[in-house]
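Long-time lurker, finally posting.

We've been working with Protein disulfide-isomerase domain protein (Teladorsagia circumcincta) and I want a structural starting point before designing mutants. I don't trust myself to interpret raw outputs, so I'm hoping someone here can both generate the structure tokens and explain anything notable. Sequence follows.
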Amino acid sequence: MTDRRQPTGCEIQKPTGLESEYKGRDEPYGIIDHMKELAIPAVKKLADAGSIDRFMEKEDVTIVGFFANEDSADFKAYSDAAEILREDFKSVGYTTDAKALEKFDAKPDDIIIFYPTIFHSKFEPKSRKLNKAGATPEELVSFIRNHCTPLVGKRTKENLFTRYNKLPLVVVYYNADFSLQYREGSEYWRQKVLKVAQKYEDKYRFAVADEEQFEDELRKAGLGDSGLEHNVIMFAKDGKKYPMDPKEFYGEFDENFEEFMEKISTGKAKPNITSAPVPINNKAPVRILVALNFDQVVGDESKDVLIEFYTPFKCGACKAFAPKYKELAKKLKKTQPNLVIAKFDANANDVPPEFPTPDFPAIYFAPSGKKSTPIKYGGDREEQDLIKFMELHAVKSFQKKLKEEL
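Top reply, 14 upvotes:
Generated this for you. Predicted structure of Protein disulfide-isomerase domain protein:
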């Protein structure tokens, strides 16, 4: 959780005219290297069927567009979709080879998502296909994002925000290692997950994950020393986490998982909420938010709320911003009674899903009337820039200045 990239706030114009946020290294050489990458089309031309076979990913999806030529509007839409997705999907290609279309049972303008061979199962197709004449880039992006995982794939720190960000999600944690040496054992348990998952695939997404890689996630859900060989957490849409309680589920995994999913699907399971203690005295200029008081403070419709999500570990940008944020809060405390400036330790508390935090510090503004659709701040972390941002979106605060401008 503490090794996330710190944002640069930089947007780069692509050769296609589309824009994307730069998420790389916050230094000139990093930006230059990224601009060089953008000069290369996001979609790779695949000459024939053999090229497609070699292009296939071993542990991730591969996306291939099949076209009669490169002059059609559908090809242009697919290319634009690839540009939109280039940060999240690296294996996106296309072919105009007639024999390749025949081999892969494709028609012109088909978009096919191929699942990696190691995750094939009898419970699902080996690929997903879309053929929609006149599809917009946004429709293609939606199709790819909605079908970018097999029924039970592997969730990792690398694909956490790009493949498994759609909820509700059920994750089974064990020594999940699909390298050649350990594949047989890992697949044995994945098959057991599949048997249950196929019954609930209309309501939930499923994944397996390596327990060591997500040790902190298990600990925060109360499963750090559960004693179980397989742990399970269901991540709900409202941000709550439902762990498979080892005190209740202590039998064989097959039986445990089946019973747990039955309890989840019937609403009988209890959530686990990770929260730091609620502060006793919380009257400082920067209010302290924790998971247990978040809804009470942020959900107050009589106030606009600015929130900094931070982590106290390995985040130089968080440390540098802290004194500036404190000074901002001091300055506005007396003049803006309807404004709350707060901070939230994302390492010690469950972060609400309406406030995604792939980078730290992450700053959101939740004005009155927009508590469920907060506005993320992407500008410079300077006092005047933040004030201008709040003035632009304020509902209950900064009203005197707004009236003066009118």
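Before you design anything, note these points.
Residues 286-405 form a domain with the Glutaredoxin fold (CATH 3.40.30.10).
Residues 183-200 form the longest helix (18 residues).
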